[in-house]
Amino acid sequence: MDAAASETSDIRIEPIAAAHIDSFHRALDVVAREKKYLSMLEATPLPDTRAFVMGMIAKGNPQFVAIAQDEVVGWCDIDRHFFPSHVHRGKLGMGILPAYRSQGLGRKLIETTLRAAQEAGFLRVELDVYQDNRRAIALYKKMGFVREGIIRRAARIDGRFIHAIGMALLFDEDGPA
Predict the structure, then answer these.
(1) d(CA 124, CA 166)
(2) From the record, what ranges are coiled-coil (predicted)?
(3) Residue 7, φ and ψ in degrees, nearest 5
């Protein structure tokens, strides 16, 4: 592990901004190409990533990045559902570059993002996590997410089916329910 990865105190968590898009795109691509954690197998083209981020900002959806040495090393976002009967719900997505995992950064990112989601009026945050991603499942449980079911054959990567676990966190007026 390199020196930058061993010290998370130098990492800033901040709302994503247009200036972060190129770096976010690079980080997204690294995690996607691992073919273990995300549905995408590579980052979407940069213009599509830019449109996604700018849309998240315009909608007021919580999206935070972890910055180390002016580069995005992790992110967490919650995309609000667009149907009027579902606007109380959002879908969480996150990722962290390999050198920065297992140091508490995921917890910092998700805590910050969930706090912003609650302040923005979300009442339910949901996610799908691959069944073999034990580290993420443990983090989500610690944060109060509850397993709601299995999505069988949720993904097919390199000819192998992967099941996912659907999880959700409900907020009440005083915090997670």
Answers:
(1) 13
(2) none
(3) -130, 100
Report pLDDT for 23. Answer: 97
Helical (H) or strand (E) element with 126: strand 124-130
**89-96 vs 124-130, strand pairing mode:** parallel
Rg over CA atoms, the chain: 16
The predicted structure's pLDDT at residue 26 = 97
Cβ atoms of residues 14 and 51 within 8 Å: no
pLDDT tens for 110-147 read: 999 999 999 999 999 999 999 999 999 999 999 999 99
pLDDT in tens, 41-86: 999 999 999 999 999 999 999 999 999 999 999 999 999 988 888 8
**Residue 137, helix vs strand vs coil:** helix
Please state the three-class secondary structure of 76-96 as a single string: EEEEECCCHHHCCEEEEEEEE
Quick one: tokens of 143?
Answer: 């944060």
pTM: 0.89
What is the per-residue DSSP string for 7-74?
Answer: -GGG-EEEE--GGGHHHHHHHHHHHHHTTSS-S-SSPPPHHHHHHHHHHHHHHT--EEEEEETTEEEE
